[in-house]
Design a protein that fits this description.
The complex is a heterodimer.
Chain A lengths: L6 H9 L6 H8 L2 E4 L12 E8 L2 E8 L5 H6 L7 H16 L4 E7 L6 H5 L2 H12 L6 E10 H5 L6 E5 L3 E3 L3 H9 L5 H8 L3 H6 L5 E3 L5 H19 L3 H13 L3
Parallel strand pairs in A: 3-4, 4-5, 5-6, 5-7, 6-8
Antiparallel strand pairs in A: 1-2, 2-3
Chain B lengths: L10 H10 L5 E3 L6 E3 L20 H8 L2 E4 L13 H14 L5 E8 L2 E8 L10 H17 L3 E7 L8 H19 L4 E9 L1 H4 L8 E4 L10 H8 L10 H6 L5 E2 L2 H15 L4
Parallel strand pairs in B: 5-6, 6-7, 7-8, 8-9
Antiparallel strand pairs in B: 1-2, 3-4, 4-5
Helix pairs in contact in B: 4-5
The chains are: A alpha/beta, B alpha/beta.
The complex binds zinc ion.
């Protein structure tokens, strides 16, 4: 295991192009996976990769926000920044998962929701607000995992599960360290200093009770197998609770942030 | 440099000139740019030209809307662990200007006799950003209203999450949503009243979670800030972009109501939810 790294190193590792892709992760976790498209209202945002599948004998709904693996994909996916139709698709599949009592796993790698004109016209704020409101009420186990970047409201939209885990090389923050340095210090070059004070590393987030667990970085098949077992154990633990208890515990988790 | 006697003044120069006009006499409308004689704004501080409602302090707003009002939890403030000098100074200034301990006033009152839980954000308090204490005040209001079986009206105005409190401020979006959900499950009404300006994490949570969502003419409402969008797309969005009228057209608001009609319209909605009583 690695020694203590500077917060900025974490930022760089979280953003590194060798980070496992959401699709690779999903195909490693599942023995069956069928991608499901579309928000039934406006479009299909490829920044949100989602569908249904089996992890061993466990049916699941998986919803990820993904960056691209090449330039073309990155342009199409706005470098992992979802638009309202992506969030609407996510909400649709969450409600579908609830209907079929399928556990939900969200895999998050996004610098934030896309800041664009159409995104505003189609209700970026509204869609995130609904994912937070309705996500917290879903009567089925809901596990959120920050894979790389967990940027702001665009990440929180998919991170109101029963538990929130972070990959070892990931960050989760209210805005980027670049944004923080620019807005609070009027000095965009102080990114390292910003990363240092923002408490955005998994270790700090765990200490502050924002996340519940740090997952050793998943790079190869063995890592995926370990990650898969953690997910299956958690699903079995959450499935053993009554729906009332599940929701009570989930509500208490989010009510406690003081 | 050559000087020209007949130079047209730049916008900046005009603004400077306007600032020299004695306070309280002339006011420039933020929305249409018209200079308005103070008295013409009337007691609701509406622009006679475009109906834009000038920004209000929270106390002023409550006086306009309530017959009577009792504030709760007025002592709740920023947790002491945020001891950064710069942030502490900001808080102190905000407290001095507003006379408040946080960016929102919460409490219970009556609107034309209808009992409600009410929250009003004050944009003079660090842009009414959503901090831990802001979230706690709002959550407690919804919880209190659930217990008392009362509707809630929240007047939002906010720059979004409070950066100084880091990710804790992001978590407040979830915390307030949780309390709204409990209130909603009890069959109670939540009216979100989005006022100028409302952005970021507040738009992406409680501002957009109302059973009924209302705004005022020409209010600026959005998720991402205009400058962030301009930098991303390298274009200038249209002028009416992120204006209440555009959100209404696109289906994200139930109504835009002029401030002078707000109290009577709100009481009609409250009456319908009381079964016409
Ligand atoms: Zn005007």
């Amino acid at each position: 295991m690695s020694e203590e790294k500077s917060a900025f190193e974490k930022v760089q590792k979280a953003r590194n192009s060798d980070k496992i892709s959401i699709q690779k992760l999903v195909s490693g976790l599942t023995n069956e996976f069928i991608e499901l498209h579309g928000d039934r209202a406006y479009g299909d945002d490829s920044a949100v990769y989602s569908g249904i599948g089996m992890i061993d004998n466990q049916p699941v709904t998986i919803i990820g926000i993904q960056k691209g693996t090449n330039n073309e994909e990155n342009v199409e996916r706005h470098f992992g920044s979802a638009e309202p139709d992506g969030y609407r698709k996510a909400l649709r599949l969450m409600e579908q998962a609830e209907k079929f009592k399928r556990p939900i796993i969200t895999l998050i790698n996004t610098p934030g929701a896309y800041p664009g004109v159409d995104a505003e016209y189609h209700g970026q704020g509204y869609m995130i607000s609904q994912l937070i409101l309705k996500g917290m009420q879903l009567k089925t186990p809901y596990i959120s995992v920050i894979i790389g970047e967990g940027g702001s409201g665009g990440a929180l939209a998919l991170a109101v599960g029963d538990c929130v885990w972070s990959f070892e090389n990931s960050i989760y923050s209210v805005l980027s360290p670049e944004g923080y340095a620019t807005i609070l210090w009027k000095n965009s070059s102080k990114v390292k200093e910003a990363a240092d004070v923002m408490r955005l590393t998994p270790e700090e987030l765990l200490e502050d009770g924002i996340i519940d667990k740090i997952i050793p970085e998943v790079k190869n098949d063995t890592d995926i197998e370990n990650f898969k077992n953690m997910i299956l154990n958690k699903i079995s633990e959450l499935s053993n609770m009554s729906v009332d208890d599940l929701l009570k515990k989930r509500f208490a988790r989010y009510r406690s942030f003081k | 440099m050559k000087t020209n006697k007949f130079n047209t003044p730049t916008t900046k120069e005009l603004e400077l000139r306007n600032q020299k006009i004695p306070d309280g006499l002339w006011i420039k409308c933020k929305s249409c740019g018209e200079n308005i004689y103070y008295k013409d704004l009337g007691k609701f501080k509406e622009c006679p030209n475009c109906s834009y409602g000038m920004r209000l302090g929270a106390k002023e707003r409550i006086e306009m809307i309530c017959d009577d009002f009792e504030q709760i939890n007025s002592d709740i403030t920023v947790p002491s662990r945020f001891d950064d000098d710069k942030y502490q100074n900001k808080i102190k200034k905000a407290k001095d200007v507003t006379g408040l301990n946080e960016s929102v006033i919460t409490g219970f009152g009556k609107i034309n006799g209808h009992k409600v839980g009410l929250a009003v954000m004050d944009s003079r308090f660090i842009m009414a950003s959503l901090g831990i204490a802001t979230g706690e005040l709002l959550a407690k209001l919804f919880e209190g209203a659930t217990e008392k079986q009362l509707p809630v009206i929240v007047f939002t105005a906010s720059g979004g999450a409070r950066m100084q409190e880091g990710i804790n401020s992001l978590m407040q979006m979830a915390k307030v949503s949780e309390a709204i959900n409990e209130h909603s499950k009890a069959g109670l009404l939540y009216i979100s009243l989005i006022t100028d300006p409302t952005f970021g994490g507040v738009t992406a949570s409680f501002a957009m979670q109302g059973d009924i969502i209302i705004s005022e003419p020409k209010a600026s409402i959005g998720f991402a800030g205009r400058r962030v969008i301009e930098n991303t797309i390298q274009q200038r969005p249209p002028e009416d972009f992120q204006q209440a009228e555009t959100l209404l057209k696109n289906g994200f608001l139930d109504a835009i109501i002029k401030r002078s009609n707000l109290k009577s319209e709100l009481s009609k909605i409250l009456a319908i939810h009381e079964g016409g009583a």
